[in-house]
Protein: glucuronosyltransferase
Amino acid sequence: MALRWTSVLLLIQLSGYFRSGTCGKVLVWPTDYSHWMNMKIILDELVQRGHEVTVLASSASVLIDPSKTSAIKFEVFPTSLSKDDFDDFAMKLLHRVIYDLPKDTFWSPVSQIEEIMWGFSEVMIKVCKDAVLNKKLMTKLQESKFDVLLADGVGPCADLLAEILKTPLVYSLRCSGGYTIEKHSGGLLFPPSYVPVVTSEFSDKMTFMERVKNMIYVLYYDFWFQAYDMKKWDQFYLEVLGRPTTFYETMKKADMWLIRTYWDFDFPRPLLPNFDFIGGHHCKPSKPLPEDMEDFVQSSGENGVVVFSLGSLISNMTEERANVIASALAVLYCAFLILFLKLLMNNFAEIYSNLGHPKTKAFITHGGINGIYEAIYHGVPMVGIPLFWDQPDNIVHMKAKGAAVRLDFNTMSSTDLLNALKTVINDPLYKENAMKLSRIQHDQPTKPLDRAVFWIEYVMRHKGAKHLRVAAHDLTWFQYHSLDVIGFLLACVATAIFIITKCCLFFCRMFTSAEKKKKRE
Amino acid sequence: MALRWTSVLLLIQLSGYFRSGTCGKVLVWPTDYSHWMNMKIILDELVQRGHEVTVLASSASVLIDPSKTSAIKFEVFPTSLSKDDFDDFAMKLLHRVIYDLPKDTFWSPVSQIEEIMWGFSEVMIKVCKDAVLNKKLMTKLQESKFDVLLADGVGPCADLLAEILKTPLVYSLRCSGGYTIEKHSGGLLFPPSYVPVVTSEFSDKMTFMERVKNMIYVLYYDFWFQAYDMKKWDQFYLEVLGRPTTFYETMKKADMWLIRTYWDFDFPRPLLPNFDFIGGHHCKPSKPLPEDMEDFVQSSGENGVVVFSLGSLISNMTEERANVIASALAVLYCAFLILFLKLLMNNFAEIYSNLGHPKTKAFITHGGINGIYEAIYHGVPMVGIPLFWDQPDNIVHMKAKGAAVRLDFNTMSSTDLLNALKTVINDPLYKENAMKLSRIQHDQPTKPLDRAVFWIEYVMRHKGAKHLRVAAHDLTWFQYHSLDVIGFLLACVATAIFIITKCCLFFCRMFTSAEKKKKRE
Structure:
C-alpha cells in the first residue's frame, strides 16, 4: 500500500511543477475500440492536471463518444462513412480473420496482419482525407496553436497532421506489424537472434530452427511487408505536402514513443532514449464491486470466481464456439462471473476491477494487451484463447513467464478449457508467477501513467525532444548499416592486395629474368 | 524550485517503501580517486535511507579514507603495496600519458588507454589477489550475507567477488575503453554509423571519413584491444573459480548497470532495460560559500568569477604549463577564483558549489565527467583543457552541444586561453546552450541519485534483476550475430539453386536428345 500512496504524491508534484509554467494544449488523434479506452486513461489524467485536451474524431467513430465525457473537448469532423458502416466493416473483417483465414501455417500470422491492415487502410485513408482536406477544420486547428499532438501509432495520418500543424508529436503504441514502424520510423533495433518478431509466437529463448524462422519473418517484414496500400498513401501525402515522402519518413518526426508494454510482459530488448515503456498505465487499484455483484462473488465461498472476457471485438461469436465455452463453464465447481466486455464497453476499468477481487482465481482472456495488463497488475493467472493480431504473441509471453495456459479458439473442446482452468487454479506455480509479474509491475521508480503524462508535458515544455532522438534518423539506410563504409574499407583492402600482388609479381619477374640473363651469360 | 522539492518528497517515499520490508546490506568494491568521490555520494544516500554499507578497501587506498566517514563501515584488508607506492605509481603513469606519449595521431587515444589500463592492471591484480585469496576476509564477508555488491565497473575483480559471495551485482560506470565492457558484458549495441566510440572524439553527426575512422576504431576495440594483461587475469580467475572463464564472461553476471551520463551530455544511443543513465547524480544545489570566499566573489562586481579546476590527478603539472595558465588568468579583467581540486580533495561538492554561484561566468575544466556534470547542472559554459582518457571526448560532447570551447593542454598559449574565456563569456550562445543542458538535466521523471538508489534497492528486493536482462547473454557470439542462421539460409538457397540448375540441365538434355532422335528418325 505504501507504494500506491507514493505514486499519488508524485502525481501532485508533477502537475504542480508544470502549472508553475503554463498549461498545455493537447490535440489527440485516436484509434477506435480498445485503443481508445486505453488512450482515454491518459487523456483523463492530462485533463486532471489542468491541460486542455481536444480529441479530433470522425463522425463515424464507434467508441469515441463525445456525449460520454465532459472534461475532454471534441472536434468531430464529418466523414462519408456512417458509424454503422464502420462497425459493420470492422466486425466483418474480424470475423473473416478469426474464422475463415487459414491457421497454424508458417505464414498465417503475417497474412492475417496484412489482411487486417489492408482492410483498415481503406477506411483510414478515407477518414484521413476527410480530416486533412477539410480546410475549415485545418484552419481552426492551426489557429488553436496546439503544443503537442498525441496519437495512437498504429496507423498513419497523425504524422501528416503534425506536419501540417507544425506541432511536436507523441505516439502511444503497443506494436506495429512486425515492429516495422518502431524499426523504420522509431530507429529501434531488433536483433533477430533474441528478439522474436511480433506474431512469430516465439519467446526470447529460441531454438536454432525458431531463430531461422524468426529471421525469415524479419526478412519478410523488412523487404516484402506492406502494411498499407502504399501507392494510395504516397500519392495522398504528395498531394498534401507537395513533396514525395513515405509515412515511415514522416513518422520519424515523432519526438516521443510511449510503448504500452513493460518488462513484466515483454522480453527485454534494446530501446532508445525517446522510448518509454508504459505498459499497464491504465491499471488502477480495484474499486468495490456493485452490491449485487459483490453478493454473487461472495456466494462462491472458498472456490472463488473466474473472470471471463474475450475483448471488445468478439460480439459476433459463432453459436458453436459459444456453446463450447458455456458448457465448460457450466460444469465447473466454482461460481462464475461471466462478463462480455461488449456489454459494459465504456466502462472497462469497472469490469477489470473484478480481477483485483481477492476471490478471483483466474482470468479467461483473448489476450488483448489491456486485459493482460490488468491480470498482471492484480497478479491473476490466465487461460489465454487468442483470436488475432498480437493476441497469440501476448499469450505466448505470459505462457513463457509461467502465468498462463494457452488454448486454440477454433479447435478447443469444453474439456480443454476445463482442464486449462483447473491447471492454472490448482497448480500454485501459476499464481506465484502471476504474483511475481505483479510485483515487477508495481516496483518502478515512477508509475507508468505518471511517466506517460510526464513525457507528454516534457515534449510541450521543450517544444519537442530532439535531444533524445538518435542521429540515425538523418542517415540513409546504407549509411545507417555502414554499407558505404564497409564497401570503402573492402575496396581499400582489395586495392592494397592488388598493389602488393602486382609488386610481388613484378619483383619476381625481375628476379627470374635477371637469373635467366645470368644463366645465358 | 518546485522540481527540487518534488524530488525530496519522492526520496522519503521510496525509503519508506523499502523500510516497510527490510533494510539491506550493501558491499562496495570501489575505485580510487574521482571514482570514489562519485561513488561516495551514492553510499551516503544509501546510509541515509537506513542501509548498512560496507566498503571493501585495500590498505593502499589513497582517497578512500575510513577516518573521514563515520556512517559507512570499512573492511580494510592488507596489501603488499603502500599508500605512497600506489599514489606515486598513479602519478607517474599519468605524467607519462599526459606529457610523454605522442598526441594527435590516429592511434594515440587508443594507445593512451591501453597504456593506462595495462599499468593499472598490474596494481589491480595484486590488490584483487590480496582480497580474494585472503581466506579469513572471504569467510567474514560470506558470513555477513550481503544483499548486493555495488562496484565501479571500470575494472575486474568485483565480478569475481560477486561470484564467490553469491550476491547480485550492480555496476556504476562512466565508460570502459572503447565501450568494450558495455558491449561484451552488458550486451549494449553501438551502431558504428551514429555512435562514436569513446576516445574517437567524434560527435554523433559524422562525415563519411569520420565514419570510416569510427569503424576502424570499433574493429580495433572488438578484435585487438586488450584492456588488461589477459593471460594473468585468466589464470587467476581459473585458480579461484576452478573453471576457465574470462572477465567479460563473469561481468555478464551484473544485474544492473548505472551509467554516469545522461542525454544532456551524451549523444542518444541504444540502451537496454537493465541500464539506467544517472549522469549528474552527485550534483546538488549550491550551499552558501564560506564568508571569506563569498567576500572575494562579491568583490568581482559585475565582471563575475571563473572557476578553474584540472581535476584530482593533476598535482604534478610542469612549471611551464602552469605559467601559461597563470599568465593568462593574470591579465583577465574579471576577478578569479582559482581552485585546485587537490587542495580540497575530499570536499569536491564544496568546490563545485562555486559553479552554482550567480556570479560564476565560466568554468575552466580538464573535462572529467564529475566537473562537467556540475557545470551542466548549474548551466555554466566551459573552457575545456582535456588531459587523458575520456576527457577529450567529454569536451567534444560539450563543444558539439555548443556549451564549451576546447584547448590543447600541451600546445595552448596564454592568449589561446584568454580568447577561449572571452568567447564563452561574451558570446551569449554558450550560456544559452549551457542553460538548455541544465534544463534537460533537471527535467527528469526522477532525480538521478534517487534512481541510482532505487535500482540498488530494487536488486536487493528482487534478489537480482534477471527479468531485465536480455536473452543475448545466453547466446554464443555467432548465435548472437545470427551467423549460424545466415549460413544455414545461404546453404538452403545454394542447394535450391543447385537442384534447380541440375533439373533444368537434365530436362534440357532430355529435350535436346529427344530432338536429335527425332531428327535422326
About this structure: Residues 471-503 of chain B form one domain. Chain B has three domains: 2-281+447-469, 291-442, 471-503. The first helix of chain B runs from residue 2 to 21. The first strand of chain B starts at residue 25 and ends at 29.
